Amino acid sequence: MRRRLPRRHAAPARSLLAAAHAALQSPESHRMDGAVLADPIMERLRRRYPMYHETAYLFILAALHFTIERLGEARHITGREMATGCRDLALERYGPMARSVLDYWGIRSTRDFGEIVFALVDLGILVKQEGDSLDDFDGIFCFAEAFEQNYPWACPRPIEQD
Fold first, then answer.
1. How far is CA 122 from the centre of its chain?
2. Neighbours of 11 (CB within 10 A)
3. What pLDDT does 14 receive?
4. What pTM, to 2 d.p., does this model score?
5. Which of 35, 42, 99, 152 is the most exposed place for a label (fewest CB within 10 A)?
């Protein structure tokens, strides 16, 4: 998934950039780390996809940015890369509470990441390539393992005895 418009839409991209900048200044927008969705877009998401908290959509946009930065280049992101980026960002931000935070937003599996990505595609916020599918997000990892069993708990240091 990527946020860039194809070249043939270069002129509208400038107006989208201006609109995004204006939305940042607007009190009627929703934001998370630079990811912004204006109220009309968020309202459409709430109506069409009520199963996810509005913050989940912002988190997915932030995770897309996080994943692209980590890869070091702006390019198409696969479902697996996106799901892994979402996991890593959630662990980085929310630590041992990551699974609970995602659950509160309605995200309980990697497929939910895909559902949100494709909701954003449906509204024209993100674009997909021809071969992209919601199934690309199925079963990438188990939430219980990723957020609980394999959480990188810090091992306590042994007490030094005299």
1. 15
2. 9
3. 36
4. 0.73
5. 152
